[in-house]
Amino acid sequence: MIERHRSLGPHSGLEPSRPPVRAEVDPVRRRMFATFSFVVLAAGVGVSLLTAGGLEARYTPELLFIGPLLAVGFLLAEQLTIDVDVKRVGWTISFTEIPLLLGLLTAPFEVVLAANLLAGLGAQVGRRAATHVVYNAGVLCLEIAVPFAVANLVNQALIGVAPDWFGPVVGTLTSPLISCGFALAALTVLGGAMKVAAGARLAARTLAVGLLNTSVGLIGYEVAIGTPWGWLLVGLVAVAVIGLYRAYSDLLREQRDLEALSDVSLSVARSGQGAQTSPDPVGEQAVPVGEWEPVAERIREQLNATRVVLRLRLDPRGEVTTLVAGEVMPDAAVQAAPDALRDDPLLQLPGSHVRSFRTLEAPEEVRRALRQRGAYEALVVPLRGASQLLGAVEVHDRVSRWRGFGRADVRLLHTLASHLATAMDNRRLLARLRHDAYHDPLTGLLNRTGFREISGDELRAGRAAVVLRVDLDLLTTVSEALGYTWGDRMVVAAGQRMREALGDAPLARLEANSFAVLLLDHTEEQAHQVALQLCDVIAMSYPLDRIVVEAAGVAGYASSAPADGEAETDVDTLLQHADVAVRAARNGEDGVRCYAPAMGQVFLRRFQLVTQFRQALDTGQVEVHYQPKVALPERQVVGAEALVRWSHPEYGRLDPDEFVPLVEATGLVDALTAFVLECALVKIRQWLDRGLRMSVAVNLSVRNLADETFPERVAEALERHDIPPELLTLELTESSVMADKERSLPVLRRLHAMGVVLAVDDFGTGYSSLAYLRQLPVDEVKIDKSFVLGMGTDLSDLAVVRTIVELGHSLDLAVVAEGVEDDAARDQLVGMGCDVAQGYLISRPLSEERFEAWLQARTKRDRGSREETVLTLLH
Questions:
Q1: In 3-state terms, what secondary structure has residue 164?
Q2: 56: domain CATH number?
Q3: Helices (H) then strands (E): counts for the chain
Q4: Cα–Cα separations (whole angstroms), residue 7 to 15, 405, 499, 534, 798
């Protein structure tokens, strides 16, 4: 806390180590320093009195001019300085030795002492340096009294041996050593003592600078008094030396300012490295205040201020955090402005420039704010980011210099504020990018990446965890009916409900309507209860656009420590297991299932079937079987239905109901349809070449009906095999047509216009209305086998079959009955006037070779009026 110390060694001798500055001085050490200051003053006054009494007075008329000139010289020497701040002491490299030497050579002790005191203490008028005026006054006295006493002793001891200027030179050199010694002592009292070696080096460099200044002063004096126009030459040299010193001072200041800028930028960047890199389950996390303390302390140290106050918006909610480096902020200043950036008169800052406030010059409200802070001078600059005010920096009072903050300080603070604001903006941007990388933009919940990071950390730490997956059903229907905006609102509402039900448990949105929860230290029974609770929560009704939508939820979970297996630490595996459990839960009673290894085998088998299907087509594992169709009542074989079969090398003969839905779901159904269609047309062509006119029915899927190019491909295949289109029947289900009528109907109309026979399969199980049939360009309907099988025992089924037959005939449609397995059913169908029968009574689906054998064994050839051969079933 020393305001001033002069004539120390060069900057290089003061800079080797710059330890951190203490935030505040202990009150005990303050009292010790006050006592030490009075001791220094007493010593200075005592030595001055002794020196004055031991020297002979030399009063001449020239003293009227020399005294004021010396005062001006001392004042200029104090103003033209190179300032270096070390710890809590400000070291000042000045030219004080020059006016001191001139005073020793030309003026009495009293005049020189008065000039030094007048220049030193007068420069502090109006400044807060009066706090240490006692110490400074004592040092000022000693800096003059001791050199005069030493010079007098040396001159008396070396009379006739040394030149007259030798004594003043030696005396002058004692002045910087005295200043250095008392400054080191003051530093020790304040608790920041230097090591002995460092102190010795500092004293040596101080002596070197003092010797340089003394030599310059002596040479200038000798030239001025011994050479014509010597004073002009000395003046020119003095201007050059002063210019050199000032240039060096400016260069030194710029270098240290650049170092400070670099330190502040690095401190802000490094403080971000300690921030949380894992995603926060709730949202963005405020930057710890402690990470900004080195930044505030570095700014305070560089500007040599008693206090630096950072007011920063570190919290994501925009709340202001106040951080003080240096002297503690008075309670009145803290309590006066709870929202300082809005209410404090010092912080109402337009633009981004630095504003300077001083007690003597400021308006009353600013003076009141300064008094509350315990400061007489303040520099204040806002921290403005790209879009908002990020905070403000306050710098209070110089510590060690007589003068207040200068233009260089203002420029440095402005640059520091710009760097700090840019660094804060970058940190906020990085925090936002990190948050966006780990969070879902729609709901604000964790995304899959964020969930994997948190869950992975917990699992690697050895925590027992349960990964729970919850799916919201009916979302697709809502989006299609009301638009995706309302579907998104349902997702957001479901996420909020689960967030409230779970508390702090990590919750993520994995994809469209799927959520994941990490339950730590939960048993499987507890996880089951949580899953039931979440399903109930998201199944509550959703009011959307003047309607209320009823939803449903299904959940599956997997434990990292299953009862019958080894602990699992891979979060991706747990997510996969939970997904498998969700699929199984769709068929459960309560919609919640726990993962079991057997479930994985089922889905693994499905995955294998999907991935191996294309190869199965190419290698002949997939075959087409044929089930004959017979016209009633003549019992003539009119065609067959092509049915696909897969002989898997590992799983054996697969039922079509197992693999066909998988093929349809994965988009391979086009390849399957093309394969069956090609086999059917080849068979029809073979029969035509043998004189048999028989049709083949091929089943279509939803994807076929949505493909606008499908009619052209059918026409190309018919033309390539030279087959009449009426011998090809394409069977479609009601649900496949109604799934997307706008796309299906144009495709059906083009197929019908080509002459291809279109049949509605499984009629009676879907829409099955007259209006529905009138919309479709179809030629026949196929009664679902469930009704045909029940005709003999259920009158309702019998009535349904009779109604379908009558409805079809009323629309000029042929009617085909599936599932005919006994003679009674066949006879009933004949009585109703059904056109065609198909079922186990006639034949099961047969491979191509067996179907040919069946035709030969169970039919006879009748030559009719047509050229083709007609096959009739034998009795």
A1: coil
A2: 1.10.1760.20
A3: 31, 25
A4: 16, 21, 69, 78, 120
The 10s digit of each residue's pLDDT in 817-832 is 999 999 899 999 999 9
- Do 175 and 7 touch, CB atoms closer than 8 A? yes
- Do 579 and 657 have their domain in common? no
Contacts of 50-56 with CB under 8 Å at 24 or more apart are: 50/145, 50/149, 51/109, 51/145, 51/146, 51/148, 51/149, 52/109, 52/110, 52/145, 54/149, 54/152, 55/108, 55/109, 55/148, 55/152
177 and 289 co-located in one domain: no
* Residue-wise pLDDT tens digits, 25-57: 567 777 888 888 888 889 888 888 888 877 766
Say if residues 98 and 218 touch (Cβ distance below 8 Å). Answer: no
427 and 490 inside one domain: no
Q: Looking at the domain assignment, is residue 173 inside a domain? A: yes
Q: How far apart are CA 810 and CA 2, in angstroms?
A: 114
**Token digits of residue 65:** 């001019």
DSSP-derived secondary structure for 391-453? EEEEEEEESS-SS---HHHHHHHHHHHHHHHHHHHHHHHHHHHHHHHHB-TTT-SB-HHHHHH
Q: Which of 562, 595, 628 is the last residue of a domain?
A: 595
Give dist(CA 322, CA 59) in Å, integer.
61
**Cis omega (within 30 of 0) for bond into 382:** no
Residue found under tokens 């099961």? 844
> What was the pLDDT predicted at 755?
93
Of 760, 786, 782, 762, nearest in space to 772 by CA: 760
CA separation for the pair 785, 800 (Å, rounded): 12
Q: Which residue carries 């049949």 as its tokens?
A: 759
**413 and 534, same structural domain?**
no
Q: Domain count of the chain?
A: 4
Tell me the torsion sign for CA atoms 217, 222, 224, 230: negative
Other Cβ atoms less than 10 A from the Cβ of 722: the count is: 9
Alpha helices in 289-406 (DSSP H): 293-303, 331-336, 340-343, 364-373
- 263 vs 275: CA distance, rounded Å: 19
Say whether pLDDT at 23 is over 60: no
173 and 33 in a common domain: yes
Tokens (6 digits) for 675: 């394969």
Q: Give the C-alpha separation, 503 to 579, whole Å.
A: 23
Nearest Cα residue to 812 out of 774, 846, 861, 844: 774
C-alpha 414/C-alpha 400 separation (Å) is: 21
According to DSSP, the residues that pair with 846 across neighbouring strands are 626
Please state which of the ranges 122-131, 779-788, 849-858 shows the lowest mean pLDDT: 122-131
256, two tokens: 């240290």
Separation of alpha carbons 477 and 481, rounded Å: 6
With contact defined as beta carbons under 8 Å apart, do 694 and 639 qualify?
Answer: yes
* 375 in any annotated domain: yes
Phi and psi at residue 199, to the nearest 5°: -65, -40
Structure tokens at 375: 């400061």
| Dist CA 520 CA 464 (whole Å) | 6
pLDDT in tens, 417-428: 888 888 778 877
Are residues 561 and 633 part of one domain?
A: no
**Assigned token pair, 852:** 């040919």
Q: What is the pLDDT of residues 275-288, one digit of tens each?
A: 445 565 544 444 55
Distance CA 592, CA 470 (A): 9
Mean pLDDT of 331-344: 58
**Sign of torsion over alpha carbons 741, 745, 748, 750:** negative
- Sequential DSSP letters for 56-90: -----TTHHHHHHHHHHHHHHHHHS-EEEEETTEE
For residue 838, the enclosing domain spans 620-852+860-873
In a domain? residue 628: yes
